[in-house]
Amino acid sequence: MRYLMTSLASDTAPDDKLFAEMGRFIEELTASGVLLATGGLEPGGVRLTSSGGEITVTDGPFAEAREAVGGFALVEVRSKEEAVELGRRFRAIVGDGVSVLQQVFGP
Amino acid sequence: MTRVRDAHRTVDAVWKLESARIVAALTRMVHDVGLAEELAQDALVAALEQWPAAGVPDNPGAWLTAVAKRRAVDRIRRERRLAARHQQIAHDLGRDLDVDRDRGLDEELDPAPGAGQDDLLRLMFVSCHPVLPTEARVALTLRLLGGLTAAETARAFLTGEQAVVRRIAAAKRTLAEENVAFDLPAPEELAARLSSVLEVVYLIFNEGYAATSGDDLMRPALCHEALRLGRLLATLAPGEAEVHGLVALMEIQASRSAARTGPAGEPVLLHEQNRGRWDQLLIRRGFAAMLRAREAGGPPGPYVLQAAIAVCHAQARTAEETDWAGIAALYDALVRLLPTPVVRLNRAVAVGMARGPQAGLDLADELHADPHLQDYHLLPGVRADLLLRLGRSAEARREFERAADLARNVAERAFLRRRAAEAAAPEPSGTTLGDAARRFLTRPELDAPTVRAYGQTLRRLGRTLGEGPCWRR
């Protein structure tokens, strides 16, 4: 089963140690076939709203920077507990902040 | 209570993520896969005892590894003391007996940086060692590298749990008796040893893939297990083209999972699948693995060729755009390396599409004498399709009936009976759907996208009503 983990942007600037640890973590997850895709997201972005057939396109930012999603990871795991465990390791590396895990249903 | 259950599920998840690394590291320490696994299991038991009360440690993997290593060290110390004592008795006085004999044991056992990856690769080679029968290799690989329990393996392979337990115990005994070293194979041995590993991984994949129904989650889960093993192997042995070929083949086959069955669980042939339901992420991963296979170089082996065929199918936006000439050429090459009856039958289908039904039928007819295909419903199924396309409908009907009799799957049998009945129907005197569709599509006022859109639907309809080849999913 697949889980998408999204993480809120954090205001702590990453240092070299964090980069190195994160690099190792991502390498390990990729090697073991768990990590399918990952990436960081531009702050802000573009919002599309449809209302009464009308579609409005607005440039961001829309919320406090700390409430915006800053990155994602799509993982393939055998159970929810495995996803939580991986999420836990990720949080232990990046420090204070919030991530959300959601199961992804098939195409 | 819930907390205890949650903790158990967490322990299980951590175990599945970590056990291969722990067992691999321990095997390097104690030189015995069976003992290593036993020690790792001891650590798992300790976790099950302690975590529900004390909570899951911050780094559970490191915790398990540390406990297992401690037990291994204790065990080695005890054995060394015992050996020393024996020596002492033998030498009577035991002047040189050094009680600090095991000083530095921890450093001695500490792995060099990067040893973890090599250990995992060694563990794969040991689990898939040719001295073991295939079933034992599969069971041991799932156990040692996937962390599956005997019960999970039994469920996946539809056998009894005790049989799996016995199989794993026998495998460990054989490895110990045959003194199988925890080493990477010598260069001259590498190809044979690697093909044994690839065979096991693909077998696990197919066991999961063959089960079309999702009733039993364990069987589709085997596909993921095999993909995971393949992706891991690709990182451990990046220079081997066949490893990437196998990964590409599995990624692309897995990409079709959602499209392979219809609403009632009936099998949907590759040709008729809704390509919109193919998983593009897996297809892209398959293409990427194929590029890595090409970078690794060398003449294409059987997995690279099968993957190349899968790539051809995945690249066609519609079934009609399939590059049958390319696929037939790949099958010509594959059949030289892997002349199995099933490959030869698939080649007959591809050639029938690329070079006309008679050319396909000639190849299918060569397979008649093959004892492996005597009871295989796809042989008459393929012949029936080709005969129908040649206008020999009476023969086609007989072949469809034969295929239906041989098919083991209920939905497939019903499908073949329907085709037999349609083939038997007397040639209609009026306009056929096929003719009407062709006339409709060749009207000059239709633009290309319209022709493509209508054509797809009409051809699918035509096939459902009894046209087109039987093709593996």
Per DSSP, the total helix count of chain A is 2
Q: CATH superfamily membership of chain A, which one?
A: Dimeric alpha+beta barrel
Structural class of chain A: alpha+beta
The low-pLDDT segments of chain B are 96-103, 467-472
Beta content of chain A comes to: 35-45%
Average pLDDT of chain A, rounded to a whole number, is 90
InterPro entries (chain A): Dimeric_a/b-barrel (IPR011008), YCII (IPR005545)
Protein name (chain A): YciI family protein
Domain YCII-related (chain A): 1-90
Family (chain A): Belongs to the YciI family.
List the helices and strands and how they pair.
The complex is a heterodimer of chains A (107) and B (473).
Chain A: E1 2-8, H1 16-31, E2 35-40, E3 46-51, E4 54-59, E5 69-76, H2 80-94, E6 99-104
Antiparallel strand pairs in A: 1-5, 1-6, 2-5, 3-4
Chain B: H1 2-30, H2 33-54, H3 60-91, H4 105-109, H5 115-127, H6 134-146, H7 150-156, H8 161-177, H9 187-210, H10 218-236, H11 241-255, H12 280-296, H13 302-315, H14 324-337, H15 341-355, H16 357-365, H17 378-389, H18 393-406, H19 410-424, H20 433-441, H21 448-464
Q: Describe it for me?
A:
The complex is a heterodimer of chains A (107) and B (473). With 107 residues, chain A is an alpha+beta fold. Chain A has a single domain (2-104), classed as Alpha-Beta Plaits, CATH 3.30.70. Helices cover 29% and strands 36% of the residues of chain A. Chain A has helices at 16-31, 80-94; strands at residues 2-8, 35-40, 46-51, 54-59, 69-76, 99-104. Chain A has a four-stranded antiparallel beta sheet with strand order 2-5-1-6. A two-stranded antiparallel ribbon of chain A has the order 3-4. The longest helix of chain A has 16 residues, at 16-31. The mean pLDDT of chain A is 90. Chain B is mostly helical and 473 residues long. Chain B has 21 helices and no strands. Chain B has helices at 2-30, 33-54, 60-91, 105-109, 115-127, 134-146, 150-156, 161-177, 187-210, 218-236, 241-255, 280-296, 302-315, 324-337, 341-355, 357-365, 378-389, 393-406, 410-424, 433-441, 448-464. The longest helix of chain B has 32 residues, at 60-91. Chain B is elongated. Chain B starts with a helix and ends in a 9-residue tail after the last helix. Chain A binds chain B through residues 30-34, 36-37, 74, 76, 78-79, 81-82, 84-86, 89, 92, 106-107, and chain B through 9-10, 12-14, 16-17, 58-60, 117, 221, 224, 227-232, 235-236, 257-258, 277-281, 285.
